[in-house]
Specification:
By secondary structure, the protein is an alpha/beta fold. It has 3 domains: 88 residues, Alpha-Beta Plaits, CATH 3.30.70; 286 residues, Peptidase S8/S53 domain (Rossmann fold), CATH 3.40.50.200; 70 residues, Sandwich (Immunoglobulin-like). Helix 8 packs parallel to helix 11 and helix 9 packs parallel to helix 10.
Amino acid sequence: MNHVVRRCLRLLWLLPGLAWGQPEPANTNYWILLEGKDITAPPALSPAALARRQLQQLPIDDTDRPVSAAYLHQLQQTGIRPLRQSRWLNAVSARLTYEQRRQVLALPFVKSIQPIDPALIITATEPVSKPQLAPVMTQIQAPDFVRAGLTGRFVTIGVIDAGFFGADSANALKHVFSREGVRLVRDYVHPNRPKTNLLRTLESMSDFHGTEVLAAIAGTDPTENIQYGLATDATFYLARTDQGNREYRGEEDNWVAAMEWMDSLGVRLINTSLGYAKGMSNPKENYEPRQMDGHTSLISRAAQIAADKKGILIVVSAGNEGDDRSWRIISTPADAQGVLAIGATNAKLWNRIGYSSIGPESLPYLKPNVSCFSLYGTSLSAPVITGFAACLMQANPKLTNKQVMEIIEKSSHLYPYGNNYVGYGVPQASRALALVKNQSLPATARSIKASGKSLTLDVNTAEPAVSVFHKKDATHVLQQEAAKVSSGKLTLKRSSGEKQTTVDLIREVIEVVWE
């Protein structure tokens, strides 16, 4: 897939899956999916993780137990060297020859093997040394969190990304490192290197990407009074799972390993501005759009386990393929139902910015979930909402991941009239804080019925144009437009096949149902 961060950063995500029934490389990485576990093995969780599970009333189950040591020993006896282990998927990854594949499949405890998707590649031009996020801070009502004293304090956030080069010396992040707010870092690309190398070694310009994401979650510059992110007082665990500017197989298991590591530490909120779709030179190795279904890719399945069984809120960038006519839709794991997939909007009209990926019409649930402004791609809109979530978790630590996700959706400006372009729209801090306090929200949405081919509405706005979504049904957009307002009136022209229309007035939303 082409995951593009506009202007200053250009990302190319090439994470395809092998199409079933196609010839596979003779020597590549595979997931080896196993049967059963040792039920006497203790869960691989820290005391903090166990305490948080108990607080959320989430039971400990087999997905918390490690892969069977006996199975690992038998694999090693056959000459297989496991690379990664996944307790959630009950699987190990390994590089296998054709003959080794036959041997592995013959083992009685092996359920199946599945090719691992080729690696993620990030290419970049110059990094965003000081991303101007002030517009999005205004859009999501960040001052409301500031006035409430919410800065992500006591909330632990995991960031899974590419490199974090220079994070400890970046002006926007000095306050985080000076208070030792980054507790641990792990480099799954070069696990044997000193941990400081993750912050000090520059292999490609993509190694700035995780630094920019972290700044969009927690960055601030007090000397210039600029706030880049909301979670300025949060605690962080960082994991590098991707190596930029290099194409090789096996990084999907890095992603799963990082997720399970963070779960073992008790992390409840994770940002991952990564996506998997298409783009390999061999088209047979690409994912197909129909596979963005929430369960085909193993990372989507792992993400769903994290949401359902581990109480983790995963915030994922939706993808930047909106302008790619051969793809257009979100990437995985943004397709998993349990993750919070974030799209990107324009700054003024709050409709979908051109590059932002749309939700597949085949999904029975809405994707993306919400959106916010980002000039540089959904990689930088997702961390804004991660900071938003951290503020809510600080406001009420007893909230579950699904409750936080629901509050963010309900706080968004289009709710309940979401669509597959921007989800429920832009989250609003004032509404979210009211929901946390179980307060009722002011009525900002209404529905009207109409017939014929056009309709003139009286609208309360001083803006010369407003965003209109023409839809084939309740959620799927035919097209969006910037419609002119003249003397307080807006004329809608019904398109062929249009069943519903959403008129976005920012502070009010009108849903027109055509009869």
